[in-house]
Design goal:
globular; single chain; alpha/beta; 9 helices; Aminopeptidase
Length: about 250
């Protein structure tokens, strides 16, 4: 199972003003777009791996959503709301990798084309050398693909992960391979993070710039294809749903 996650909550000291336009909404839109991209690409459909998408609430208050999900998956308590749908395979032991989408907002500088994959260094050192090499090699496979799509990919495994829902899962099982996909380097680019100013109308750069979302989601979709062992041609023009992004915004 490949688990792709993001958070859905923001915060602010002012009541009902934690909009999270850039810190949260862009990542939610990216996750929905990624799901649509994979669904409409034949190379992703026929796979022996499940690709599971998770949206977690309460992450600003001690990772409430992801902590509960990780606990229930560890102890076999996760229940499905869909009748006659069994999810006994949704356990921590079944997770091949966790990918978290974090603050994938358009940059203020249109020339900034950097995309960062941050591997958790603790879990990286816990898993076997063969798995380490395999994970890095799989990430490196998309480096040239990212370059062709106008992005410069950076794979970072030396520094601790930023605040992320992945920590909830690693707390239960530190050997799960995991990384955060983001457009920021060693600090957040969003100066309005967790502020009432994290609002579409007040931000300096335009969220309506689909190109950032398109490029990053096509690259991550390609990576998922590699992870599920079905590295076929990805056709961005057919797979990427511009209408979905437009409606979501």
């Amino acid at each position: 199972m490949i688990l792709i996650i993001t958070r859905v909550d923001s915060a602010s000291i002012f009541k009902k003003s934690g909009y999270g336009s850039f810190s949260v909404i862009t990542s939610v839109i990216s996750l929905l777009t990624l799901a649509s991209t994979l669904t409409h690409n034949d190379a992703s459909v026929n796979s022996k791996f499940n690709v599971v998408f998770g949206l977690f609430d309460g992450e600003n208050w001690g990772y409430i959503g992801s902590s509960r999900a990780a606990f229930e998956m560890k102890n076999g308590l996760l229940q499905s709301s869909v009748p006659n749908y069994h999810i006994e395979n949704f356990s921590l032991s079944k997770i091949k990798i966790i990918i978290e989408l974090s603050q994938l907002a358009p940059k203020a500088d249109p020339k900034d084309n950097n995309l960062y994959f941050r591997i958790d260094p603790i879990s990286y050192n816990k898993i076997s050398n063969d798995n380490n090499t395999n994970l890095v090699n799989q990430l490196l496979k998309v480096e040239e693909f990212a370059k062709l799509n106008g992005l410069k990919l950076h794979i970072e495994k030396e520094y601790p992960l930023p605040p992320s829902s992945i920590h909830s899962f690693l707390r239960e099982n530190v050997s799960i391979p995991a990384f955060v996909a983001s457009l920021y380097d060693k600090k957040y680019d969003n100066k309005y993070y967790n502020s009432f100013l994290d609002n579409y109308r007040l931000t300096e750069n335009a969220i309506s710039d689909f190109e950032y979302v398109r490029k990053t989601m096509i690259v991550i979709a390609k990576l998922v294809q590699i992870l599920i062992g079905n590295d076929q041609k990805l056709e961005p023009e057919k797979a990427f749903n511009t209408d979905l992004v437009s409606l979501s915004l």
